[in-house]
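Residues pack. Consider this:
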Amino acid sequence: MDKKTEDFYNRLREELANTSMWPTSYLYKFIVPSDTNKINKVEAAFDNMGAVISTQQSKTGKYTSISITVDMLNPDAVIQKYQELATIEGIISL
């Protein structure tokens, strides 16, 4: 992980720790190319977690937004999911 990415995750960890009582319900938002395989990878990362997942395709159909609400134990668990999904080509975390 490069320094810029590491700094981002450290700031996120601090912000999450200071603004939420843990465990808490967390909302993830992603944009991925409208590729069924990529969408399925994102959804599969939250299997067996009781997540509420909604998807919406862009007007052109080129991209799909994915919103996931799931109970997370702590900021480190949130960041771990972001890092796990960052390996999906073309994914944008919001």
